[in-house]
Amino acid sequence: MRLLFALPGFHRYDRGAEVALLSVADALARSGEDITVMGSGESRPDAAYKFRHVPAVRRERFERFPHFPPLRSETAWEDASFSPGLLAAYKPTAYDAVVTCSFPFTHWALRRPSAKQPLQIFVTQNGDWPAFASNSEYRSFACDGLVCTNPDYLARNQQQWNCALIPNGADLARFHPGPADRARFGLPADRPIILMVSAFIATKRVMDAIRAVSKLDDAFLVVAGDGPLRDEGQALADALLPGRFKRLSLAAADMPMLYRSADAFVHMSLLESFGNVFIEAWASGLPVIGHDTDRLRWILGANTEFLCDTENQPTLVDMLQAALARGAERAGHPDGIERFSWATIADQYRDFIAGLITQRASVR
Length: 364
Fold this sequence. Notes:
CATH architecture of the largest domain: 3-Layer(aba) Sandwich
Strand content: 5-15%
Mean pLDDT: 95
Low-confidence stretches: none
Shape: globular
Distance between the termini: 18 Å
């Protein structure tokens, strides 16, 4: 299959959507599929797919720009800046299917009129609202296949679109229990470490995590991430966690060791489309504290001991203490994690897209 994966943040950011789709693209390329990736970063020599740089303005430049439909966030502004270059680089006749999770501008560019229109595959990495809503710019959404990253999205959309339930995963060769190296990140050796891997945006509730950890006597909170609320978060941590907080912005290659250097993992979003970080933390042997939802229980399976109502601070503090008391596992992959290997996930993408291609060919 000739597939194109397009997203503004490819090779520029190593966040959830970028990591997930690039991992699928790389696994498919290594299994023999003809995969092209377009993004605003630079080539990476270890990637198995073909990469083409398409310029875009960094999303940080848009943090103070006005937000209105369809430019609802700094990432939408970034998406708009990416689409002209994508239109120039994208040749519809070169692909059997195109894959993105970016709406609306990348989605619109990939659907431009053409004599041969490749299949349009949309992945709900950032939510299923484009596929579900019927107001404003969302009325323009259309796809040939919808990859639903959780059962809620599948139930909501399967009557309207060709859907497949496919979770995200983790690179189990990189994310696994093992010895820590706190000195590498400037972290204290004599305190329990709570790790949060999160953007500094309102929905990630980093401030609430800072407030909760401040109720613990000795714990150190490290947040790996960036975003428009970074200064507000630092100011709150300076006031509530003096000497017990650190914000890091790391390359993807450093993340497995950061997980292994922690004692517990917390993620505060009330509802994620999926949340790769849950799988990475679980694969690394960390107890996972998160907001108790059916969706997260589906992801974690039996590993739900430390889920709770994270909006209830006393309950959250108790769960943080309990997770630290258990501590991290330092050897062996946790039971059940194998189903989230990227090779397994990529096989599901291949089967879904190949089935759609066959279906189209039979109709014609």
